[in-house]
Design brief:
alpha/beta, 3-stranded mixed beta sheet, 44% helix
Length: 212
Amino acid sequence: MKFVSRKLLCVILVGAALGGALSACAPLVMGGAVVGSLVATDRRTSGAQLEDEGIQLRAANRIRDNLGERGHVNVNSYNRRVLLTGEVPNAQDKQLVEQIVTRVDNVQLVVNELAVLGNSSLTQRTSDSLVTGRIKAAMVDSKDLFANAYQVVTERGTVYLMGRVTQREADRATEIARSTPGVQKVVRVFEIITEDELRNLLPKPAANETQK
């Protein structure tokens, strides 16, 4: 149990160090090494990764300028598909936030999951962070997933899964999330690709390896 607890803590700390809610495109790292039963590069192009960072920053700044301290909004972008989570005080603000983000350059799709509620408590956000950490740790342990292919967001016990994945990978990740303690609901915000597309995205073996 001690090993599992340390690993979960490392996953959570690494996620926070890499940018919290604003960034999840970098691989998990422990002790300077990329971890996971299967190591994969980010499935987005380098241009898409930069655009996602820009989308998140611009959207967050514009939301802050318009809402101020009114509400708690998280913006996550993966391959130009934007997920909005958190809380706003009324339906008008929910719609306003969506309109703001839709007008940000390079945004292709907005999934508005904002709740019309009071802001979540620190206790709830800490619990959500632990749930995210458990799911990421389970993905790292999995022998049939590329853990770095997924972005995991948790709000009030609801888990949102993002990434460019095959149907098989989407179903497996959903199974892992649903079996994680503390998860009340799983929402899939995937971009589904074919198995052929996945093979084309995977790193090609080095020439000397293919000759062995």
